[in-house]
Amino acid sequence: MPNVGENVRINPARLWDSLMQMAEIGPGVAGGNNRQTLTDADGQGRHLFASWCSAAGLTMGVDTMGNMFATRAGTEPGLLPVYVGSHLDTQPTGGKFDGVLGVLGGLEVIRTMNDLGIKTRHPVVVTNWTNEEGARFAPPMLASGVFAGVHTEAYAKARTDLDGKVFGQELKRIGWEGDEVVGARKMHAMFELHIEQGPILEAEGKDIGVVTHGQGLWWLEITLTGKESHTGSTPMHMRVNAGLGMARITERVHQIAMAHQPNAVGAVGQVKVFPNSRNVIPGKVIFTVDIRSPEQTKLDLMRGEVERAAHAVARELGLACSIEVVGHFDPVTFAPELVDVVRRQAERLGYSHMDIVSGAGHDACWINRVAPTTMIMCPCVDGLSHNEAEQISPEWAAAGVDVLFHAVCEVAEVVG
């Protein structure tokens, strides 16, 4: 099988220009993006991506969860495709690169193949997975989860946002409900390029993160119910303060994560307080606890400790307490043979690299259940992500896509 020469590189200016054009859709208030899933902005971003795919000669397919699959034919159509991609949706105060780099980096791989007249035995497919973030519709990685058989389509389409809008209805409203059966596609392999979303690569001065594993996660939604009452006229000993309960549980989550070091993290994320008035003691709070570890035993131990702590705090304060799992995946071990490809290509191209564990969840974590999968990471400034100030350099982006390009060429098997 012929190799593509190590002097071959993608077009970094074209890649960066595509990233900046996509960032114009769904602008945030502080220089980033608010292109939450199934919003009008998400629909506009999808149309732009589809137009670029069409211009690159790709054939677009869309499944009933809105996942987009843009295919470049191989010389042997009967062979399973090599998939590359990530997601175009963002957090409410998201950056320009989280997810988007993986999708548009995949498109740049195709554009470079076209420029050079490269043919591959296996087809190559660039994918945009729906609702990776889970910011509007929990849980995260929802559509890739349906694809991998983790969730049912009925469950996914019944998810609601904070305004009560339903996932399935919103997917139809923006016009991106396709007709393909979710999960019917089979894969030879999948690569997902992503920014690290952490500080390790930048701190270590490495161009490329070779992702060997992914952390497991539990998202626990805790509801505490007390009694709304006046903040000024209710004696302290007569209060049933749901906000106080949340504060104490927040501290316990931190303590539990610290007690399980290393390789464990935990925090309270989303918070809803009712009635959320200046002079009313909260009668109800709903908040999410996010705990993660690459070690299964540690992850499950932390979940049990958080749940016991929440119920203990509630009993002490006279609160009702309910806990619902709204997101979960086990720790992931990515396909060793694909990890080796990424490591070898980074070395071959002269990029500094290191093995790394993904601290965040990604669509690749679910797809790994049904096909050989791995990830490639590039640094981000100060490790900052899920923030409008998220930033990477054009050089980091280009290095990540260079490695992705050569890895795809190897696994899709260049002809001639």
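[next item in queue]
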Amino acid sequence: MNNKKKKSKRILLISLTLSVATVGGILYGLADRYLIPHVEEVVAQPSTAAAISSSASGTQSAATTKTAATNSASTTSTASAANATSDDWNYKSDNVDISVKQVETGSGEDKITYYVADVQLKNASNLRTAFADHTFGRNITEHTSEIASANNAIFAINGDYYGFRNDGVVIRNGTLYRDEPARDGLALFADGTMKPYNEEEVSAEDLLAQGVTNTFSFGPVLVKDGATVQDFDHVKIDTNFGNRTIDEANPRTGIGIISPNHYVFVVVDGRQQNYSRGMTLNEFAELFEDLGATEAYNLDGGGSSTMYFMGRVVNSPGGKGQERGVSDIIYVGE
């Protein structure tokens, strides 16, 4: 009888040990995937054309993922810009013209509050991107305002949160950082234009050869060739843990283009009763079309949606006016 009890206890102990090990392994795997920072290596050096463009605009170096020194040395402060004038909602210099406005529509539970930035640049080199902590990798995050301030940005929005996933094509400031095609991406070109593309149909090498300076891997495409995209019913961005359809009303961040070097950026607040419910993808696409965008693309939204201008966050991110850490931004600098 005693032997049977001892055997049962051993079996129970072994089972408990295996269960704890299994749960611990699962928890560590989740933490490693979504919480623990991982610095990643650069995939490829920029093409000659891209390198020239990157050097001329003072953007991130391809030689290292730690680019703090490069950005600090090459980016001038907004205060020293030639003939610059500004107020809380406008900035104008010889190279940059930005106008930001707050828009409110509807009322009560149907009220929507959003922010539109009309950005006109003399040269595409004024439109740049930056990583959290000046480092490329997964789960490395800072607030949009922190990244913007560290790069002397005049204006900034959150990017595609590339660091939450391990796929997609990531080209930033002429450097290829990741080459794992997965979805419809967005490409910005050195001539001041932009267009969506299918990552699985166009190689990263071809993109660089065409003069692509930056790509974003989120989506979906909102406006293409001047017409809004209509079918968002089953759109999913990826297959990460907890992923769900994003078609319902949510906070939003997006970028559109009206003509070369003339961009429109929109950040929609949401999930805030009697202030802003957010927008559906259809509403977001229609808004960009109404603003005159010929191409438009949806970036990371929800708690990430943040617009920064002249040293302050202008919207109310996260439903409580508190920013969420993100892996990257798109910004305008002198």
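[queue empty]
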